[in-house]
Records
---
Amino acid sequence: MSKIHLMDEILANKIAAGEVVEKCVSVVKELVENSIDAKASIIKVELKDAGTQLIKVTDNGIGMDEEDSLMAFQRHATSKIIDESDLYRISTLGFRGEALPSIASVSNVTLKTCSKNIGTIVNISGGKVLSVTKGDARIGTIIEIKNLFYNTPARLKHIKSLYSELANITEYMNKIAFSHPNIKFTLTNNDNKILETDGRGDLLKTIKDIYGLEVAKKMYKVKSNLDDYEIEGYISYPSVNRSNKNHMITIVNGRVVKNYDLNRTINDSYHSYKPDNRYPIVVLKINVDPSLIDVNIHPTKMDIKFSKMNELLDEISTMIKNTIGTKNLIPKVTAPVVEKKHYEQFVLDFNKKEEVYEQELFVNEDLTIKEEVEDEKKELEAMYPVGIVHGTYIICQNELGMYLIDQHAAKERINYEIYKEKLGNPKKDSLPLLFPITIEYPSNEFIILKENFEFIRSLNIDINEFGINSIIIKSHPTWLPKGHEEEAIKKILDLIINIEKNFTIEKFNEKLATTLACKMSIKANTNITIEEMERLISDLRKCDNPYNCPHGRPTIIFYSTYELEKLFKRSGFENLV
């Protein structure tokens, strides 16, 4: 008797659901993408208990007739591709024909749809069609998914908290709204509105709807063209960043994708303009001929392969660096805005020495978004030091206002650029060590160092084997920080060991320059003279990027005279008292 047999369709769909329908957000994603492919301009997503009890998606797309509405729940049934050649020119979000039958196999589904004069209502439970009836002649589709995973308890048990499920759905809806700003999206959970966009096609307005006005005001517009790629979107000021990578959003032909190389390139382009453990807010839309990409490498269709990937990455990196590098990035302190109609109450409160006005009287600026662009990058204004606070922050002034300079961060930037230049243009000068340095390493680390002896010697470090798993250093380059030579050499060797897997000269030079810059910089709580302050400011003005230390922290903060007057309630105040 044969042991091999064909699985029935419902069982096969349940197995497929394990890949396609991992959690509630997977269902929302598949249904919303179907609505987009159906040319909808309005899409509403309603949830009950973060989608565990109900996911309802309503659209005004082209809808389906009765035959198509039943065929849609058949495995591998699709309107998106016809033959093999279509697989290499996919322009729709969905195409595999797996999502609806997989979802229907693990839930209760009600589909209401209409494409012409007569609508259709289909009820399905656990993959079995229960009824097909006539419905309203409302053009578009409404699909309800109830009791998700009710017949697969193991999968239901692995659903995280309702908060986590809702957060995942919200994140997806935000990203799909960025990819289609011409569609009006609404998301509610238990009748509470979470997201609403206006669908007018303005990407910056969509950024405002999701991130708020203050972030939208601090975005640069970017655009670039290659022979095969068109790139446009918005990137945040370096000072606007987040603690995770989820806010670097890349959209390819309208599809939100996750690509490690794209995200790494975007983040690396901000290097030394922001802290390494912070990530920018970026929305990049990439348009490309569908034949040059492959979206059919995973059932979720989130990953993607590119032809001519290196050209694309180089262009994105150049575009971001050129945009940031031409801007004046000195953070400006902005005082709260007080409307004129509130001044009278403000004066009364002031005279009574009450501190109740801070929250009530300060109001936001007009919510109209204007695409703010900072001043073009130019040499730092002349500024004159007048003192120091806590041995850390240098106070400067000029006719424009007041500047605060973090002396350690400023010196780090100066040293970083010096060491980058020395590492990029090494000289043969070296100094012998009075007492040679010997270091013993574990065998695996010693092997890595031994493989890189020639490179280490190119840095003018005289290195050789010295017994089993040991090395000896007899001389070093002249530019190592005085008093820290041994420590610096050990740092160099540790860097070579730690970045061995992805070792490049550029990466090594970058990390070493950052490390040495920190070692040579003025420490916090160190008082310096006015002459030393002037010399520090002069050296900072010569830097390519005087605005940030190598770790991305700001070196300078600016208070304009006007903002100082507002902070001290002097601006306009004299007209009232």
---
Amino acid sequence: MCGIFGHTGLEVDQIDHSHSALHTLTHRGPDSWHYETPDGIYLGHRRLSILDLSPNGRQPMNAGGVHLTVNGEIYNFQVLRQELTENHGVEFVSQSDSEILLHGYIHWGIEDLLDRVDGMFALVLYDSPAKKIILARDHAGIKPLYYGLMHGELSWASELKALEQFYGAPNLNVDKTAVYDFMTYLYIPCPKTLYEDVFKLEPGHFLTYDLTTQRIESNRYWSLADLERQDVEESDSQAFIQNSVRNAVQEQLVSDVPVGFFLSGGIDSSIICYEASKCIEQLSTFTIGNADKSVDEAPFARMVAEVIGADYHSKVFNSKTADENFPLLRDFYDEPFGDVSALPTNEVCKLAREKVTVVLTGDGGDELFGGYSHYRDAERIFSTNSSTKTWMRSFVVAVKNHAPHRSLAKKAQRYETKTLDDPIERWAKAKGGVLKTDAFKRDWAKKNGIVEDYDDYWYYRKYDNPGLTAKTRAQYIDFHTYLHDSVLTKVDRASMAVGLETRVPFLSKNAIAAAWSVPEEMRYQDGELKGVLKRIYEHVLPAEVLYRRKQGFAVGSIEKKSKLYDRTKNVPRQILTQLFPEVFDA
């Protein structure tokens, strides 16, 4: 895992400025750094050594006039390496997975390469003979890639902070619509960033920049909608699913440094740990506990560790840590990000990094197999029947925003759902989004020139597919929005802040295809969330883990003792006023 930064139009006397931008990513690659400057293009790389720890694995790599930097891991690299060796006579100089991307591009071209590769990555290729730069991001958006296009020059980086350093924050214009979107989604939706002219590359896309014409073109190479579903008999579905997960875990155990496992006490991480226990002799698991014992999941994690015979390591997250670490939400994410569970996530990452350099996680299982509680309400949420209580909305909103007592305001806020006539607005509410009727949000919009007919829910509408059955429709939206913009972003920044690589077996291409091939009624076998996973593993994992209500890390439970996490306050307001005051006051 690494950090990458680069740009066109390099002026040699300004190279120290380029280096300083690269070094904002030292946490992503603490082991070493290197750069190349072919044809006035700066290609910088900070390395976290995982495979081939020797100097042969360092980047940038080059062959045949093509230069490569990449952040990530390619899980099927051994198969692709063999094919390149046997069919194309490639002589590799390293044992790293990254080198297959270089030679794969040369022999197959970018589209064929991306079609063959399974992994998590953000890559940059400079093809000197063709005078073009290619940026590509993995199919699910596990690894981040930002790019800027200003003054006819292209720049790119693993994190926004590198581009802030390169351009200078005062020279970047805040995108007011992106800030407003944050108030809705609690993240800035892709491809937007905090700044105009700086973007996130979308998952499953590659971008080509022609140095001669300065023309930029973005293409999608992978799509959940285009997956060919396999015909799976009901009697074979469980074995089909388990084999796909087991194979993904086996592939992702390959490493030249120690590997561990996050174990939350939930279904998904428990499954990953169980499958890994069948592949390696001794597991090291890492858990973050909650100071509020009423919602502490650590006992369930310990239970799983004991069942599979794993080493168990844990620490407790409390209100003092929450208060002290609150500013990290800006340090990690560089733009407004509202999932405060990022802070306990970083604590468990620090715990793991004391013993290992790589961990496997259970992320993606909820979106693929239906784990979120609001999926139960999908039929109601997406119903085309009009609400009979829309006439009450103005009254309910007034109570919500101006009630003298917090308890009354909260009741009105909950009741507002019953007055919503737009299915996508109901979905936004179910996801915990901030509706357009929120007083703080409306006031900010008016002061900052957000037009009244701005569609607050455009991002959800972009990925809504009414042709799908209700629960699958809900999963489809989550996969294309919340998963990479919130869940994967949270874990990437929290882990890379301490130089820890996180891998996600559920999001291998084959595991995604397997989940998507199983009919909805099988995914929700017996009408249960993750029904098929529960049935597969109920004979090997504790029932107390599989059949309890999904919880997640309840940061709110410690807020009663936290100065910064006063749960009577609006999360977007806290983030903007306390961490981004210059944006809020602009």
